[in-house]
């Protein structure tokens, strides 16, 4: 196998479902892979997680599982140190790094790094490490090579093990040419990065809609813990939109569930508070402060003194230009955490922005109504800050002087922001166009035919 062919093959893992439907090897041209790390749903303002770095810090330097001084170790030698994990002795295992804790439960979402080797071949034919992206899968869903899955079911978080798989538990008599020859034994070197218990969520998804509506409070709580962890993992990897989807799904379940007593209601409110706070910070990260406001407000209705709720409410208000209200909430947050650097920085930025806003407002008023005027006339009152209004007018003026016939604005503009655009479109005799194409909104202005 030449070097280029090897790189092509390593760009994609082989799953059992690929083999069942027929596999084609393709070059993966997408290099924008996210790293998989995280776990907490509590501290989204301090997202630092070194779990994976700690797990693998000594892997290359200390452990050379397949090689000793650059000399390849044949499978027959490796087997001498391995123990069978099946009665027929066709799957063998050697633990290289042992960890404490529980064995991975069935239906868990598991994150692993692995290298897969053939006998007498120096390089792996499949490697998540070379792809620089851990493999994530649901344990027990039948998507893994059977022997590998059986080996992983015996492992714990952080464990590094060698798993030798007989052809009958791997790719069989046929193999998977040209990548894997016929009747081939496979050696997997696997490390468990982490796992998230997903059994409750999987079982809930498999229930009928009627059964889901009748699910007990205990069952919904189990689903919350699973979905919340999965969503938090997505957040840690900056996958905010799918995280929002999972948070909202379990939020709707908790909002609709009937509780039997005061203790259950207290527990429900506690979980909803977490979800509202997490949704608020997610929407801040997707540049949607209006929705961040909604969920921060819901959080504060449950806990008016919650410092995260106060901070996120203040930050969202600041981003929407409501500087006075933002200042109120940010100072309430700072009162509780006077030395919190995040709060201090946003307050400083708010004060700087307010000064700029006031300067722009004076310039805008003088520009439109002369030096004697200091307030906007009632017929041109806008909800948006004066600096935004002036910025839109400057953009439209530049467009008028250009050779372009159309100019597009952000699809995320709010109604009040679009009102500013429409006003200047009328002022400068331009056509305003609003369309929905597929799932995308299109906001643009266009020069009329007689104007260019």
TrEMBL record:
The family note in this entry says: Belongs to the FKBP6 family.
Q: From which source organism is this entry?
A: Trichonephila clavata
Q: What name does the UniProt record give this protein?
A: peptidylprolyl isomerase
Q: Which UniProt keywords apply?
A: Isomerase, Repeat, Rotamase, TPR repeat
Q: What is its EC number?
A: 5.2.1.8
A Pfam family per the record:
FKBP_C
List the InterPro entries hit by this protein, alphabetically: FKBP6/shu (IPR042282), PPIase_dom_sf (IPR046357), PPIase_FKBP_dom (IPR001179), TPR-like_helical_dom_sf (IPR011990), TPR_rpt (IPR019734)
Please give the PANTHER family that the UniProt record associates with this protein: INACTIVE PEPTIDYL-PROLYL CIS-TRANS ISOMERASE FKBP6
SMART domains associated with the record: TPR
MF term (GO), any: peptidyl-prolyl cis-trans isomerase activity
Ranges for the TPR repeats: 273-306
Q: Where is the PPIase FKBP-type domain?
A: 107-196
Supply one GO CC term from the record.
cytoplasm
**What's any GO biological process attached to this entry?**
piRNA processing
Q: Which reaction does it catalyse?
A: [protein]-peptidylproline (omega=180) = [protein]-peptidylproline (omega=0)
């Amino acid at each position: 196998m030449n070097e280029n062919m090897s790189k092509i093959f390593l760009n994609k893992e082989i799953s059992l479902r690929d083999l069942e439907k027929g596999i084609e090897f393709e070059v993966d041209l997408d290099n924008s892979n996210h790293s998989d790390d995280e776990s907490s749903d509590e501290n989204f303002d301090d997202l630092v997680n070194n779990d994976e770095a700690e797990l693998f810090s000594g892997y290359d330097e200390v452990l050379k599982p397949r090689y000793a001084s650059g000399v390849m170790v044949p499978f027959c030698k490796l087997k001498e140190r391995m123990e069978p994990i099946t009665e027929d002795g066709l799957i063998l295992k050697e633990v290289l790094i042992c960890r404490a804790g529980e064995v991975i439960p069935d239906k868990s979402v598991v994150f692993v790094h692995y290298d897969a080797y053939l006998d007498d071949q120096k390089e792996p034919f499949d490697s998540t490490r070379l792809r620089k992206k851990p493999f994530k899968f649901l344990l027990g869903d039948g998507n893994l090579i059977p022997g590998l899955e059986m080996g992983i079911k015996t492992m714990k978080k952080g464990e590094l093990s060698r798993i030798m798989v007989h052809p009958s538990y791997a790719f069989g008599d046929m193999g998977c040419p040209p990548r894997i020859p016929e009747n081939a034994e496979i050696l997997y070197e696997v490390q468990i990065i982490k796992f998230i218990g997903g059994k409750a969520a999987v079982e809930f998804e498999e229930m009928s809609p009627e059964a889901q509506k009748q699910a007990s409070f205990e069952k919904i709580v189990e689903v919350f813990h699973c979905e919340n962890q999965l969503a938090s993992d997505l957040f840690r990897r900056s996958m905010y939109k799918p995280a929002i989807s999972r948070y909202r799904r379990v939020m709707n379940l908790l909002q609709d569930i009937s509780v039997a007593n005061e203790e259950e209601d207290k527990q429900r409110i506690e979980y909803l508070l977490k979800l509202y706070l997490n949704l608020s910070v997610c929407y801040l990260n997707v540049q949607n402060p209006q929705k961040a406001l909604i969920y921060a407000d819901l959080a504060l209705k449950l806990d008016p003194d919650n410092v995260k709720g106060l901070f996120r409410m203040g930050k969202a208000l600041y981003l929407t230009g409501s500087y006075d209200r933002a200042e109120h909430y940010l100072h309430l947050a700072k009162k509780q955490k006077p030395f919190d650097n995040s709060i201090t920085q946003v307050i400083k930025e708010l004060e700087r922005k307010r000064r700029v806003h006031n300067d722009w407002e004076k310039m805008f008023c003088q520009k439109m109504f002369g030096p004697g005027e200091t307030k906007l006339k009632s017929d041109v009152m806008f909800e948006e800050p004066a600096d935004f209004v002036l910025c839109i007018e400057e953009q439209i003026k530049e467009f008028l002087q250009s050779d372009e016939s159309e100019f597009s604005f952000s699809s995320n503009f709010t109604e009040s922001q679009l009102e500013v655009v429409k006003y200047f479109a009328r002022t400068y005799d331009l056509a305003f166009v609003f369309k929905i194409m597929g799932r995308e909104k299109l906001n643009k202005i266009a020069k009329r035919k007689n104007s260019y």
